[in-house]
Amino acid sequence: MRLALSYLFAAALTLLGAAHTTDAAAGFRLETLAPGVHAAIRTDPPGLMVDANCLFIVNDDDVVVVDAPEASTELIAALRQVTDKPVRYLINTHWHDDHVIGNALWRKAWPDIQFIAHPSLRDYLPGTGAENRRDMITGAPQAAEEMQEQLAAGKNLAGKPISDEERASYASDIALVAHYMKVVPGTPDVLPDLSTTGNLILQRGSRRIEVRRLGRGHTDADLAVWLPQERILASGDLVVWPVPLVGGEQSHVNDWPAALDALLALKPALIVPGHGPVQRDTVYVELLRDLFTDITRQVRELRGRGLDLDGARKAIKLDDWHRRLAGDSAVRDALFRMYVAAPALVSAWNATAQ
Ligand SMILES: [Zn+2]
């Protein structure tokens, strides 16, 4: 994610409150999904800040890794507990820091490693990516400090007494900001050695690994990793739980349903999302597809009626989706408004203007 977290944070802080800091930042658990296939799944509660999941694919003679999160030091240590085989390839599913910033650490650990990603990373990371990172480095600590103050005051962002759920979420955000500030400033970008805009097959001994372009959705650079023998898919941020991470400028809400349909056509048994728990059925993916289809349809209709963006913002009906994704959780309510409702409208609006 981290689309424009600086502004997201600023917006969030007009809404939020904070708790005591916990050590949630290094938190992930390893889940073995098939022989040699291990997912490192983040255990943080839902919040504004995230770090990404990671997948280890241990082959006959080497290892292929999917994504290089901020917790890569801890992930490398965890992988070394699993195997002493060298990491040969690391696939970055897209360009956001929580999926690429660890590249330098993985190269330090295995100098011969090769990085695979969409070619647009080579443009994005030194340009827009560097700007967004600067904003994040200046904005996030201040945001965390304000959250800490709100926690101390026992209030949420709306100024109401803070719930246990919100307390845990804010504490996690603060810990993740601290971890981000420890890892990210000064870490060099490591750009892809190999790029693909289509399908790339890695045959590593008896293991077949396919780097798939399912379509664009979360970003222009979205790639997924498919293990056809095991029917396991690492989706990157095409699939994120508990709400999708949408960027008004960076995401393509109108194209996202087609990418998710391509994902569903693979009939995966297990989906490792960019963030959130392993999905063991396709119910959530179908919900996301239907959400983006509906937003695109509504925006087209509202434009057709001659409304401007402000008018569309008032007229669009997302209550049902809001209920399905947020339930009665105050944290998910804030996440839905911040990461779905506002940016998805902008993304769909921009697309229909073309
Ligand atoms: Zn992302």
What does this 3D model show about the protein?
With 354 residues, this protein is an alpha/beta fold. The chain folds into two domains: 282 residues, Ribonuclease Z/Hydroxyacylglutathione hydrolase-like (Metallo-beta-lactamase, Chain A, 4-Layer Sandwich), CATH 3.60.15.10; 67 residues. It contains eleven helices and twelve strands. It has a seven-stranded mixed sheet with strand order 1-2-3-4-5-6-7, covered by helices on one side. A five-stranded mixed sheet has the order 8-9-10-11-12, covered by helices on one side. Helix 1 runs parallel beside helix 5 and helix 8 packs across helix 11. It is globular. The N terminus is likely disordered. The structure holds zinc ion.
Mind sketching the topology for me?
Elements: H1 5-13, E1 28-34, E2 37-42, E3 54-58, E4 63-66, H2 72-82, E5 87-91, H3 97-100, H4 103-109, E6 114-117, H5 121-153, H6 164-183, E7 194-195, E8 200-204, E9 207-212, E10 224-227, E11 232-240, H7 256-265, E12 270-275, H8 283-304, H9 309-315, H10 319-326, H11 330-353
Parallel strand pairs: 4-5, 5-6, 6-7, 11-12
Antiparallel strand pairs: 1-2, 2-3, 3-4, 8-9, 9-10, 10-11
Bound molecules: zinc ion.
The site of zinc ion (ZN) has 6 residues, from loops.
